[in-house]
C-alpha cells in the first residue's frame, strides 16, 4: 500500500472507530431508556412515552454508524462456502465482483437517499408520533452511512489488489 493510501486508510479507520463508539453509546442510552420505561410502567408511572419511537430511530442510526466498521473488520455477514469450494483464482475474482457490486449498491443508496432526503426537506414532511420531527432528520443519515460504506469498499478493493491472489483473510469464515 502506498504511504499516502496507508495514511488515508489510517485516518479513515480512526473515523470508523469513532462511529462505532458512538453506536455503542447509543446502544447504552437505548438500553437505559428501555429499562427506565419498563421500571416506570411497572411502578405505575406510565412509562417513558417516547421510548419506542426513539428506540426505532436509534436502532436505525446504530446500524448506519456500525456498518462501515463491521465491513472493515470483516465482521459483516459472509457466507463463503462456495468461494472455498472454487479454484483460488475464481474465488479471488468473485471477491472483486462482490466488492464492485457492493460499491455500486452503495452509490445507488447514496443517490437515492439524497433524493428522498431532499424531497422530504423540500416538502416540509414531518413525522407525527409521540415526537413531531422533520422527516428529513431521519432520512439524512442514510446517504451518509452508505457513502462511508462505499469508501470502505474502495479500501477493500485496494487491499485486494495489493494482496496475493486468494480469499480474503480479513473476513470471518463459516469454515
Count of helical segments? Answer: 6
Strand proportion: under 5%
Number of strands: 2
- Report the structural category: mainly alpha
Order of helices and strands: HHHHEEHH
**Shape by Cα distribution:** elongated
| Chain-averaged pLDDT | 92
- Compute the CA-based radius of gyration: 20 Å
Q: What helical percentage do the residues reach?
A: over 70%
- Biggest β-sheet description: 2 strands, antiparallel
Oligomer: single chain
Termini separation (Å)? 29 Å
Q: Order of strands across the biggest sheet? A: 1-2
Low-confidence stretches: none
Could you characterize the architecture of this molecule?
This protein has 175 residues and is mostly helical. It has six helices and two strands; from the N terminus they run H-H-H-H-E-E-H-H. The chain has a two-stranded antiparallel ribbon with strand order 1-2. The model has no long low-confidence stretch (mean pLDDT 92).
What is the structure about, briefly put?
This protein is mainly α. It contains six helices and two strands; from the N terminus they run H-H-H-H-E-E-H-H.
Amino acid at each position: 500500500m502506498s504511504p499516502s493510501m496507508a495514511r488515508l486508510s489510517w485516518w479513515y479507520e480512526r473515523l470508523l472507530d469513532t462511529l462505532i463508539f458512538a453506536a455503542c453509546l447509543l446502544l447504552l442510552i437505548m438500553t437505559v431508556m428501555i429499562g427506565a420505561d419498563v421500571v416506570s410502567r411497572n411502578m405505575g408511572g406510565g412509562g417513558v412515552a417516547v421510548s419506542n419511537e426513539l428506540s426505532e430511530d436509534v436502532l436505525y442510526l446504530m446500524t448506519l454508524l456500525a456498518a462501515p466498521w463491521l465491513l472493515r473488520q470483516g465482521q459483516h455477514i459472509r457466507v463463503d462456502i462456495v468461494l472455498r469450494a472454487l479454484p483460488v483464482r475464481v474465488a479471488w475474482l468473485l471477491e472483486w465482483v462482490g466488492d464492485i457490486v457492493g460499491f455500486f449498491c452503495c452509490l445507488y443508496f447514496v443517490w437515492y437517499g439524497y433524493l428522498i432526503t431532499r424531497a422530504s426537506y423540500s416538502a416540509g414532511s414531518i413525522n407525527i408520533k409521540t415526537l413531531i420531527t422533520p422527516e428529513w432528520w431521519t432520512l439524512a443519515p442514510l446517504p451518509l452511512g452508505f457513502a462511508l460504506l462505499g469508501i470502505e469498499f474502495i479500501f477493500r478493493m485496494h487491499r485486494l489488489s495489493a494482496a496475493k491472489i486468494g480469499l480474503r483473510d480479513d473476513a470471518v469464515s463459516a469454515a
